[in-house]
Amino acid sequence: MVSSSKKKRGKQRKAKQQITTSTSAVGPDQDQVVVVTPKGTYIHPNHHKLMTQYFRRGDDKATEILTSLTSEDVPTNGISWPNISLDQSGIVSSAIYFLKQCEDETFDKALADARDSVSAPRPRGGHISFVGGDLKSPSLWITILRKAIDSSGITSAIFRIRPMVICMCNDTDRLFYKSDIHWRESITSFVQLVSDMISNSTDKRVGKWLLVNERLLASIVQWNFWDAEHRPDIVDVLSVEK
Fold this sequence. Notes:
Blueprint: H1 4-20, E1 22-23, E2 34-37, E3 40-43, H2 48-56, H3 60-68, E4 74-76, E5 79-81, H4 91-99, H5 107-114, E6 116-119, E7 127-131, H6 139-147, H7 154-157, H8 162-169, H9 180-200, H10 205-212, H11 214-223, H12 232-238
């Protein structure tokens, strides 16, 4: 028969293991990069810089993680751990850098240019070669911008995504990174991004952004008619019924 004290110690060990369980998001040697706890998931502060570098290299797993993290701190053992700042880390700027290439480059070319070796800030030093370049869809870059909608830098950043606006508002050619597939993958995220910018921001520059982008204003009106009756071509492309 197991004593109550042993049971208690066993439960404590199990709880501790649950709190410190982590998945290596960006490399086999990067323990505790992403920490999963019963109260939430966060990127350990020691690895914020590393995660940013992986994102800049077009790494699929790192980008997926960044799109799913909460912006709120995660309490663990009495310590409130801050999640990575998409704005201050430079991730927002990097996403915009990628999206500005959507008119002139293919998605594969943008990823090929991003793929490189990454210096890993870990105790043993060194670097990991040939990181990234395996992102599945450019829609995740738009999702990153949407996730950062409340950050201090996102409003000024909207003036730098004109190439993306031009591509996504062209619902005739429907090309994003010279691909109709990527346009179809990304149009929902783009519509949600614009909607969030309009509804969540009190910055007057958002109104100016809309006025400067006349094509966007026209598209916003058209979105109300993206249904089987008025735009069956769009419904067919998106494979959804409004």
